[in-house]
Structure formats: structure tokens, C-alpha cells
């Protein structure tokens, strides 16, 4: 899909190289995530701190997703994903966007639960709803910790909520259009 060196919003950690100076600046992977979505957390924190992420089409990475955790719908992966979705939202997303996203997140989670209960579309998830509820419980237990971390992240942020929102929207449009360029002006506007 991409032929040239391309700016993207963030990267999957299974296929990423990071500058040591970035980790020195924003911190390392958050151990409270353990696994699943820890790369999204670091990507958002990097963006909030003003770092860029580039996709290098010539690079080749071979990764079997979820191979060591029982697959993408194992009880473990469902638990960790459910917990860490809420951790990312609570910890990283600027308040204006968080308030706009929250109703959609709640609606999506409600649909997920109802689908698992009343349809046969997601049999693996139905089987692993215990993991989902454990993940939600884990997120609730970690909420005070994530809120403390949030204060530091938002205080250290180098781009505005608006600039972050523009980056996120441009990335989503790039993905939908299959374009190979995320062009953002210095003022945070798509070019």
C-alpha cells in the first residue's frame, strides 16, 4: 500500500524501532499494561510530546499475532484488551476528545456484550466473556493509577488537543483512503 517513507500516527511495537531519546523523554512501555495496547499507549504519548512516526516500506517484519497468548480471542487476550482499551482512554486521550469519544466507546462495548449474549456471530468472544468482565474489573481497579499518570502526561504535552485531534483524524482518513502520506502543516492542519 505504501511505496515511500510515510508518516503514520503510530506503530505496532512488534514492528517498530524507537529512539532512546524518546524513551528518555516520555518514559518506557507502561508495565501496568503488561501486554496488548502498550504500543498504542507509547504511540499516543509520543505524539502528545511532539514526536513523529514513520513507516518504512522497505523494512520487513514477520510476526504471528497473539501466538504466545492463545490467539486474538483467547480469554487472556480478551481480558487484557478490555482492560487496556480503558487504560489508554483514561491515561492518554486529551479531555475534549475523551468526552466526545466516551459515548461511542460505551455504545460499542454495549453492542459487544449484547452480540456475545444474543448472537452467534462471536462464538469465541461469548466463550471468553469471563475474560472481558475481568478486564473491565481490572480497568476499574487501575483507574486511580491511570488518572495519576494522566496528569503528568497531559502536563508534559507539547501539542494542543486540537493538533492531536487533527493528527488522529488525518491518520484515519489516510487509512480509509489507502494514501501513503500524512501531511500535516506546522499549525496542525492537514495539507
Question: What report would you give on this structure?
Answer:
The protein is 58% helix and 3% strand. It is mostly helical and 191 residues long. The chain has a two-stranded antiparallel ribbon with strand order 1-2. It is globular, with a radius of gyration of 17 Å. The model is unreliable at 180-191 (pLDDT under 50).
Q: How do you describe this structure in short?
A:
This protein has helices at residues 20-26, 38-48, 75-92, 95-118, 123-127, 129-156, 161-177, and strands at residues 6-8, 53-55.
Task: Give the tally of β-strands.
Answer: 2
- Helical percentage: 55-70%
Low-confidence stretches: 180-191
The overall average pLDDT, rounded, is: 86
Q: Which value, in Å, is the CA radius of gyration?
A: 17 Å
Q: Give the strand order, joined by hyphens, for the main sheet.
A: 1-2
Instruction: Encode the helix/strand succession as letters.
Output: EHHEHHHHH
What is the count of helical runs?
Answer: 7
Give the overall silhouette: globular
Share in β-strands? under 5%
Structural class: mainly alpha
Biggest sheet: strands, sense, closure? 2 strands, antiparallel
How far apart the termini lie comes to: 20 Å
